[in-house]
Amino acid sequence: xxxxxxxxxxxxxxxxxxxxxxxxxxxxxxxxxxxxxxxxxxxxxxxxxxxxxxxxxxxxxxxxxxxxxxxxxxxxxxxxxxxxxxxxxxxxxxxxxxxxxxxxxxxxxxxxxxxxxxxxxxxxxxxxxxxxxxxxxxxxxxxxxxxxxxxxxxxxxxxxxxxxxxxxxxxxxxxxxxxxxxxxxxxxxxxxxxxxxxxxxxxxxxxxxxxxxxxxxxxxxxxxxxxxxxxxxxxxxxxxxxxxxxxxxxxxxxxxxxxxxxxxxxxxxxxxxxxxxxxxxxxxxxxxxxxxxxxxxxxxxxxxxxxxxxxxxxxxxxxxxxxxxxxxxxxxxxxxxxxxxxxxxxxxxxxxxxxxxxxxxxxxxxxxxxxxxxxxxxxxxxxxxxxxxxxxxxxxxxxxxxxxxxxxxxxxxxxxxxxxxxxxxxxxxxxxxxxxxxxxxxxxxxxxxxxxxxxxxxxxxxxxxxxxxxxxxx
Length: 474
Hints:
- The protein is mainly beta.
- The chain has three domains: 13-167, Immunoglobulin-like (Sandwich); 174-311, Cupredoxins -  blue copper proteins (Immunoglobulin-like, Sandwich), CATH 2.60.40.420; 342-473, Immunoglobulin-like, CATH 2.60.40.420.
- It contains three helices and 33 strands.
- Strands 22, 23, 25, 27, 28, 29 and 31 form a seven-stranded mixed sheet that branches. Strands 1, 2, 3, 4, 6 and 8 form a six-stranded mixed sheet that branches.
- Strand 16 (251-255) and strand 17 form a beta hairpin.
């Protein structure tokens, strides 16, 4: 068990998370409480061990797959806490290469961000590192390596981090789907070739096998009349999902962990780029015994059935949908002052069918004409921008390429205020914004978290191929 390191402030509860099977609400085991503490926060302790493992990703008539996993599980164990809790995680590395853990979407201290060379040295084989931070926002987040992430994520290293609101909305079930994407051979082994230039310069290492919670799914079983809060996490290294819940009307209530005005997804499908998350509420209004497909149709002519929603052959839980509100309380994010915001443009270029001339060997992408990178393998960091702490900024991200780019900024959330010069309908807070080919988007934020922060494409081959930069908040 992780040792009990005292902090100056008393904490109400102390819990330890070990390997938790599955992705339902994870039980948290109480250890002991402080007599002076209040019930407002807890110190939650966990251990994550990254090591080779075996997983039955595909149906049992096929062999199991050699993977890399946290605590032997794909995806890794759910870490489930409440807003305001403090998380302390000892990460042990039993791989044959260095690793780190990035806590995606969490507004945490820079030293805990898990970017090798930038915020910490890589965790060497046989070594460990303790991450310790407080969770300021409720929402759906996840964790994954940031060392050789184009390989380590594609081999299975990722897991859900759920931060519950103090007063959650009413739902009969709270479910998590960690969406995975694998490039498998006929014997169900993971195909080699990580970091191949074909993937780097095109749309990344898109696989041929899709899983939910580490398995090729057949059925998502429900009961007529129940309301489900479904947390969707795209943990793939490159695949973009566009999920159409046939016969149902999902209502989006949060994006990238941040509440949004409840709305039906544009075009009917929930689109999730790598690293994006969406919380949706679905009232299960199908007939008992019925079956409804969930299709992924994001890529033209490559639509497939992801899973079937299968209704139990029993009377409905209720005859009318719940009327309880589904709007989530806002998280404590600083609102940018658009009138006084400093503005900058960042152009994304390169890739196949684009201009790659003049880029360093092995690189295919550039930001503002530079492919210097940020993080692993980069000895000297030259920030793309230096931002003043506490000041409002608007960045115009311009995709001058033929490929999609989900751009993620560490340590902050931002409002998406326009796309192609048109105001957005919901002014959603995100930490990862998907840019279609030749699309531009304006994002606004307050630079309120000091440190060196990565801004990069979360198609992880693109990141390795040069689409990564550092923004300094000072």
